[in-house]
Design brief:
With 167 residues, the chain is of the alpha+beta class. It is built from four helices and six strands.
Length: 167
């Protein structure tokens, strides 16, 4: 196994209709996680993996009209992979993260006490050592069904460039 892409619902699944008007619960997906091993020697493996996965989703889940994903500032590219895959860009927002022992966690790991994953528990037990950071998250949407783009309630923006530091 040299990689994995995880698709699922948003943290608040019902909020999809606040992004694209009229979206039903099974009409969108969020690309929640993507990891590919550096051992992969093909060119642009992230773009290829996203492309193959979207082709699969179109075939297997025809009700899905759009896919959302976020890139965050700590990766440095501001979502350049999503740009290469022709996702549309819809702005950024700041979110809190915590860094502990070389691992970065989203703020939900600190606040969701019901989540008993070992890594989250470790973070909460060592919160006095964790370094709190505010990082930008960049929102990208791929419209599988181009007709629903007109129902998007967010304003599309030009792609951010990692070499242009903006606030």
């Amino acid at each position: 196994l040299l990689g994995s892409l995880q698709y699922g619902f948003m943290m608040n699944p019902a909020s999809a209709k606040n992004i694209v008007k009229g979206t039903g619960i099974y009409e969108y997906l969020e690309l929640n996680r993507m990891w590919l091993d550096d051992k992969i020697k093909t060119k642009y493996p992230e773009s290829q993996a996203i492309s193959y996965s979207i082709k699969y989703i179109k075939k297997k889940f025809p009700k899905v009209k759009w896919i959302q994903s976020f890139a965050d500032e700590r990766c440095g590219g501001f979502g350049i992979v999503y740009q290469a895959c022709s996702f549309d860009y819809f702005g950024d927002h700041n979110s809190e993260f915590y860094e502990l022992d070389g691992v970065t966690y989203h703020k939900i790991a600190m606040s969701n006490l019901k989540d008993t994953r070992a890594a989250f528990t470790h973070l909460r037990k060592n919160k006095e050592r964790a370094i709190k950071k505010s990082l930008r998250q960049f929102r990208y949407i791929k419209f599988i069904d181009k007709r629903v783009k007109k129902n998007c309630l967010l304003k599309q923006q030009p792609y951010p460039k990692h070499y242009e530091r903006t606030n």
